[in-house]
Amino acid sequence: MAAPMVHLGDGLNVSALGFGGMALTPVYGEVDPGDALRTLHHAVDSGVSFIDTANIYGGGSNEELIAQLLKERRDEVQLATKFGLVGSPADGYTDIRGDAAHIRQAVDRSLQRLGTDVIDLYYMHRRDLRVPIVETVEAMAELVQQGKVKHLGLSEVTGQELEEASAVHQIAAVQSEWSIWSRDVERNVVPAAAALGVGFVPYSPLGRGFLTGTVDASKLGEKDFRRRIPRFAPDAASANEAVVATVRSVADELDATPAQVALAWLLAQGERLGLPVVPIPGTRKRHRIDENLGALALELTPAQLDALGEASDAVVGSRSADPNWVSQGRE
């Protein structure tokens, strides 16, 4: 089924389900570029037109891959990319930069790699604590005035940081990890976004694959990014299987898959908390896109929503190796 369109904020309309491009880089293992491009085309063919990437995914190769899609289908895609992190998900990040000089350089390099003259949604990937967020957003706003960027986004900011940023320029979307097993953003960030008319774009809505019940944390490859995340450590992962068991139980009740249940829960949370929510699950497999789209038609009962909410209380381990690099550590 094709995804309907959803209004995030600041006039930005995107498909109700997006696609997270990081999965099409070697962060979870090797990727065949031809297969990756076919997966992107299948996403757009299926109505998933909101494509999310970042300048550091694959050292820029992810933007170059998406450029091949845009060459044929730019008018069918709402394109999001990011700046700020230095390093790579696979090898580790070495710095965060939110200064104006870095932003100006980063956007031009992204535009060149993407082969386009404008980015629909440009995110600050992480907060540079050395630079006032007002100054970072002022530099981002210049890009809108120059026509290089249409809308601004912020990733992993606190509620207070979002309020300060919104006073400088309207923010279309906040992107942070949010799922059944990552709910810390519901304390402050989600209410702030709802009050300011900012949409929410949850990344890793399937718990980096764990919530689908298809990931064995004990068998992750040596270069798998998830090996550095505390909740994937052996003892934590074993305890967290209880969360997956609840998701699988609800899926069985609905004749659905765990992935569909996890996504449907997020969409229901957005409705309950009063803001538009557009998850961006990533995948290398085309049939997973079709599976994920099935979540849009799935309705969870109040009892099922309660059971899933209670399951989240049992999660063991932080969602980030360094909580200060995400909003959770600064709230």
Characterise this structure.
By secondary structure, the chain is of the alpha/beta class. 38% of the residues lie in helices and 15% in strands. The strands form three sheets. It has a seven-stranded parallel sheet with strand order 3-4-5-8-9-10-11. Strand 4, helix 2 and strand 5 form a beta-alpha-beta unit. The longest helix is centred in the last third of the chain and has 21 residues.
In a nutshell, what does this entry contain?
With 331 residues, the protein is α/β, with parallel strands linked by helices. It has helices at 33-45, 61-73, 100-114, 133-145, 159-166, 189-196, 234-254, 258-273, 286-293, 302-312, and strands at 5-7, 13-15, 18-20, 50-52, 78-83, 85-88, 92-96, 119-124, 149-155, 173-177, 199-203. It contains ten helices and eleven strands.
**pLDDT < 50 runs, ≥5 residues:** none
Order of helices and strands: EEEHEHEEEHEHEHEHEHHHH
* Largest sheet composition: 7 strands, parallel
Oligomer: single chain
Shape: globular
Helix content: 25-40%
Rg is 18 Å
From the N-terminal CA to the C-terminal CA, the straight-line distance is 39 Å
Mean pLDDT: 93
Number of helices: 10
Beta content comes to 15-25%
Spell out the blueprint of helices and strands:
Layout: E1 5-7, E2 13-15, E3 18-20, H1 33-45, E4 50-52, H2 61-73, E5 78-83, E6 85-88, E7 92-96, H3 100-114, E8 119-124, H4 133-145, E9 149-155, H5 159-166, E10 173-177, H6 189-196, E11 199-203, H7 234-254, H8 258-273, H9 286-293, H10 302-312
Parallel strand pairs: 3-4, 4-5, 5-8, 8-9, 9-10, 10-11
Antiparallel strand pairs: 1-2, 6-7
Helix pairs in contact: 1-2, 3-4, 5-6, 7-8, 7-10
